[in-house]
Amino acid sequence: MLVHPQFDPIALNLGPLAVRWYGLMYVAAFIAFIVLGRIHAKRRPDMGWNKDMIDDLLFFGIMGVVIGGRLGEILFYQPGYYLSHPLEIFAVWKGGMSFHGGFLGVLVALYWFARKTGRTFFQISDFVAPLVPIGLMFGRIGNFINGELWGRPTDPGLPWAMIFPYVDNLPRHPSQLYQAAGEGLLLFALLWFYSAWPRAVGKVSALFLIGYGALRFAAEFFRNPDPGIFSGLPLDLSTAQWLCVPMILAGMWLFLRHNR
User: Pick from 17, 18, 209: which is nearest to 8 by CA?
Assistant: First the structure.
């Protein structure tokens, strides 16, 4: 069986400043957004985007990701802990970011940007959707380096079963890497190909909702479920799976509704 390398979460020290791998993964995600955004703008000039617009949108997107992701972690997963340790709310360098919270934060940022530029919300989200999955991939790699969000116990005969020594000595699924491959690379390939040609407004956004929701829902069967506000509900689904259900339903509705 494989053993998690137990990476040092600090990548390098710059004097009194400790640069963490988790933070570097966010930087890599934002750089990928800019690079892919400029490529996407060139291959789809009909969408009317330029590098200045991409840079402006990134700024507000970062605010939405960080604030929404942190609030999502606090409200959806660990409200009791953060209520007892309020100063930990600001310790974002330790990890603890909820995708669904970050997603809601980004939706607010996209809505504001749409109002600012005189475009519709779905014109903005259709451009952004193919640029997001690579950032999600980097985030999951950061989770793997941190040794957090490990998988469920599995058969020791599984060739890639991994022991996380700081958890226990059980072979587990390296679910962080599953999610990096599924919600990251696979979803990126699907959206990048689909968005290469003009589609009805809202279709690309709808495909992102369906694709992410379905892939995350499936990945949760291999990931050790996080405690959350929806734990203990019927069907034995995790909090993340319950949060994915409205994403999938909304995506299906959008895909069927937007045909122009």
Answer: 18
**Percentage of the chain with pLDDT > 70?**
95
What is the mean pLDDT of the segment spanning 11-36? 89
Q: What is the mean pLDDT of residues 225-231?
A: 75
Contact 53, 85 (CB under 8 A): no
Who's near 197: CB < 8 A, 6+ residues apart?
none
Between residues 99 and 91, which one has the greater pLDDT? Answer: 99
Residue 20, pLDDT score: 87
CB 195 within 8 A of CB 204: yes
Per the model's pLDDT, the better-predicted residue between 79 and 92 turns out to be 79
Mean pLDDT, the chain, whole residue set: 90
Distance of CA 19 to the CA centre of its chain: 21
Domain residue spans in the chain? 2-148+160-257
What does the alpha-carbon distance between residue 81 and residue 193 come to, in Å, rounded to a whole number? 42
Angle (CA) 26-28-32 rounded to 5° is 115
Alpha helices in 118-260 (DSSP H): 121-128, 132-146, 175-179, 187-194, 203-219, 239-257
Rg of the chain, C-alpha, whole Å? 19
> How many angstroms separate the CA atoms of 91 and 10, rounded?
15
What's the rounded Cα separation, in Å, for the pair 186 and 96?
Answer: 24
CA end-to-end span of the chain, whole Å? 52
pTM: 0.88
